[in-house]
Amino acid sequence: MAVSVLVAATAPAAATTPDPLAPYRGQQVAWGACPFKQGGHARAAQCARITVPRDWAAPSAGTDLKVSISRAAATGTRQGAILVNPGGPGGQGTSLAGALAGLEPGLNEHYDVIGMDPRGTGQEGGEDKGYVCRVPLGRLPQDDDDLDARDRSAQSISVHQRTPRVLAEACQSDALAPFVTTWQTTHDMDLIRSLLGDEKLNYLGFSYGTWLGAKYASLFPEHTGRMVLDSSVNFEGRLQAAFEAFPKIDQRQFDRVYAPWLARRFPDQLGKTATEVRAKWEQLRKFFKTKGVPPDVFDSVFVGNGSTRQWMTGALILTKGAAALDGKTTPSPAPAALRNDLDRASRAVFGRPADRLTAEDVAEDPPEPDYADVPGTRLAVACGDQPTRTASWYKLLSDLQGPAYPLFGWAYGLSEACGFWSDPPQHPLPTLSSRAAKNILVVQGEFDPQTGYEQAEAAARAAGIPMISVADSPFHGQYAVSGNSCVDKLVNAYFLGSPRPPATICPGVPLPGEHQVFPVPGPAGQPATAPAPAARDSLSGVRERLQDGISSVNREP
Hints:
Helix content: 40-55%
Number of strands: 11
Number of helices: 22
């Protein structure tokens, strides 16, 4: 017996392999001040930076990355945390946490609202600018190219395709590109869940954020809590299909909702019917070309037209242009109910009050993108998550979509950088299991011009998920940012413990400057209840700014 005890005491211990993830899971989160300005309406948030492996598939290889997170802590009895994402891909979400907590204090009473600047996006308000593609300006189209995608000559098509080719090459030349994907980001999200000490991750995502949330649920079903996917892509299909649908859904919103609204609000300037407005739009497209605004730039103002500010910007450009085109020295006054909205948009976009804005000002400084220094996350994710189509396929798509959807159909297929993306996907992204799908709720506006109703409907149907449809809504983002009490009540009740609601059609809310809803036939159908009355309150402007922020990070570049 003594011998056996001695042998047991002196036997070497079994060899153990160190857990390469232990340093990440064991790190302490040091909450502190946030580097961005927090609005007066927002709940005060704290921020931190956590360390994540560059590659979750090989955590010991390569240089670690930093991901910024924020927290608006629960004000009452904590039930958990809700991670929020504004979309993109490439939208920073740390400021979103406090903003949403301020708009939905009842939710924040029981949940920490957690924001995140996803990998590749840097730090909102900080010095870290993230994954940036250094694009040589000399290889891009020049001002005198006067781009118009309706010109189908070989020279025009070649010049149009120059930009997406250069963007793809510049972004792929960065060694970080293969590691800025949805698969990698979902693993960052699960680390955040672990560091918060929660068994389940609750989640609210807008636009591309619906894809991100659904893929987290697909990869981590055992840790998936209650999820709301707002303004959804088809997360059971192809992510790139959401961008490919832009021409159709933009044209539908413009023709069925925006043009009729312009006719009701600006009949003397733009026409009394939607048909007259569309004709005036074509005249102004040609007019601004004579003022030096390339037609593609003019068109782009009305692409992804998913927020009040974007509607006001378009209305300003059209009405100021119409006054100049018609030779009016004293333009017709704007509707009284829209003057404040128009003035805010004019100051924000053009730097001057609306009553001093002229067509010459618009032509001098049109709102167009700067491709000198391009954030790369959108391309790395959209083109790297799944196999891409070829540039020739996208050119054919342009040929097919242009005649049907002239607003953006001619230009989209010639501008898609994924057609020039050569790196293959690194990791498969599964579809939802029934275990994860039972925790998800989808919310979708009927005439959203940035994520189409049919895409959300297809995803919800394929996964067996109920969808809250918002009839007649032409904006991007519904919950908390649209002022729709039907949507807000259903979503809040679900997050706070009620059973997941069945498929529901919520009535829309009146459009800017109006006090009633003008129903438009569409794919959602009409609600059984009457539309909510127009009711602006002290938070209306806050909601509109937040909705504009969500819309802007999800606009097609």
